[in-house]
Write a structure and sequence with these properties.
single chain, alpha+beta, 12 helices
Length: about 375
């Protein structure tokens, strides 16, 4: 790899070619973010999460706090760049990259070497090639770790896996303090509900509008870190998205993990209710019914205090031969605690041996306690296989 010495015009030509590719045409955020990072790099901007959040995403003020929105979107941009160079741009001599842990765009010239294999006689090399393939297969079999049985059907190269992080739709307009800013209303969870509100209250049409960004809590960063680390351990890719920017068609195209609240009325509640034979989520409650051994029970998913709540974890079949693995709770502590629990090898094995046995799918209810939105205690209340 040779570091490139290109003019600003030549660099822009490379960026433009990528942005106009089929890989980037429908990825509007990655498309715009690539252009922004290239411009900022050329200007010599000291790119940090807070700077990107302020300049690109339109935050009202800079912050040095961890910002999952910036990291998630740059992570997705890197994946799009890799995808481009594996397909449409595989023959591009000049390429760009955004190094891990950095936000500047770097250009380099790909080295092209003559394949050594062309110099060999195929007749003489075939025995050695067969030996090489055999040795490589043995090394791969013995060095690539196998996922736990609970994750085996989700962590697979057969189909993509989307990690959907639960975020919150918001509006901008006059706030309760009389200023202008971002507002979260739990009754408005998508653009359709927003315009339904305006139909009901037309006097608001000139005072509020959909926000150009959504809101996530610390849970987003913690859960994404746990699941990404799990997938990296088994050399698998994980596509990370936000729930407000995820369509049904995306959910249908592969396996999906959801981590987030239920109060945002996310699309996975519907899939959960359809697939579970004994459980239903409705109106902030989890209903257990029609089980042959267990009595009907209702769990209140809206706790009176933030320091204690129920968390739901469920793995169930979805459309086609895909599967969902969902992590629900009302606040941060439930999702964070259960994500940690189900990415720990020992706790996974203990759960499977104790509660699943011959069952492939399950729904489990945990009671989680914590302080300052950090879990301190997790207790399994019930696990039902099916």
């Amino acid at each position: 790899m040779i570091t490139a010495k290109l003019s600003a015009i030549q660099k822009q030509e490379i960026v433009t070619k990528i942005r106009q590719s089929n890989t980037f045409k429908k990825a509007s955020t990655s498309n715009a973010l690539l252009q922004y990072l290239n411009n900022a790099t050329l200007k010599g901007t000291n790119l940090k999460e807070g700077v990107i959040d302020l300049d690109f995403f339109g935050s009202k003020e800079a912050s040095d706090k961890n910002n999952p929105r910036v990291r998630v979107n740059v992570y997705n941009l890197r994946k799009k760049i890799t995808q481009y160079y594996e397909t449409e741009g595989k023959d591009d001599l000049w390429q760009l990259t955004i190094d891990k842990g950095q936000y500047e765009v770097r250009f380099f010239k790909k080295q092209v070497r003559k394949p050594f294999i062309n110099k060999l006689s195929w007749r003489k090399s075939l025995p050695y090639l067969g030996l090489l393939i055999t040795i490589s297969a043995l090394i791969y079999t013995n060095t690539t770790p196998k996922p736990p049985s609970l994750w085996k059907s989700i962590i697979t190269k057969e189909k993509p896996t989307h990690l959907i992080i639960g975020d919150h739709f918001g509006v901008t307009g006059n706030t309760i303090t009389g200023g202008f800013g971002w507002t979260r209303d739990f009754e408005i969870n998508n653009i359709n509900e927003f315009y339904a509100l305006l139909e009901e209250k037309p006097e608001l049409k000139n005072t509020i509008r959909p926000a150009n960004y959504t809101y996530t809590t610390r849970m987003a960063a913690l859960a994404a870190q746990q699941f990404e680390r799990l997938y990296q351990h088994y050399n698998q890719d994980l596509d990370i998205r936000f729930s407000t920017l995820t369509s049904i068609s995306v959910i249908k195209e592969g396996n999906a993990i959801y981590a987030g609240p239920i109060k945002n009325k996310n699309q996975f509640i519907h899939f959960f209710n359809e697939a579970n034979p004994y459980f239903t989520i409705a109106n902030g409650e989890l209903h257990l019914s029609n089980h042959p051994q267990l009595k009907d029970t209702i769990f209140n998913l809206k706790p009176p205090i933030v320091e204690e709540e129920y968390a739901i974890v469920s793995k169930y079949p979805s459309i086609g031969d895909s599967e969902h693995f969902v992590f629900f709770s009302d606040h941060d502590i439930g999702v964070s605690a259960t994500a940690e629990y189900f990415t720990n090898k020992d706790s996974i094995q203990n759960f499977v041996n104790t509660y699943l046995k011959d069952k492939k799918y399950f729904t489990a209810i945990f009671k989680v306690k914590g302080q300052h939105r950090t879990n301190t205690d997790i207790k399994l209340e019930m696990a039902v296989g099916f």
